[in-house]
Design a protein that fits this description.
Order of helices and strands: HH
Structural class: mainly alpha
Largest sheet: none
Number of domains: 1
């Protein structure tokens, strides 16, 4: 943004006018990547852990239902 203001004031677009704005944009982009990349890695790790827990709970529920069925089938047979 500052580069555009400077260009408008000087009525020219030479490298000395544009370079500070480009440097600012690159620094801002770098800061964003420094924050975004670890956040994305943490998101994927936590998502993977959630899926593991979900699968374990599904298996636990499945075993519980099988035990209940066996228990009630055995009681009905007696």
């Amino acid at each position: 943004i500052h580069s555009f203001i400077d260009i408008a004031q000087e009525k020219s677009a030479d490298i000395t006018t544009v370079a500070p704005g480009l440097a600012e944009a690159l620094i801002t982009t770098l800061a964003g990547l420094i924050v975004a990349i670890p956040a994305l890695m943490a998101y994927h790790y936590l998502t993977r852990q959630t899926h593991k827990i979900e699968f374990a709970l599904y298996e636990l529920g499945d075993r519980f239902v099988r035990i209940l069925r066996q228990t009630f089938n055995n009681q009905d047979a007696q």
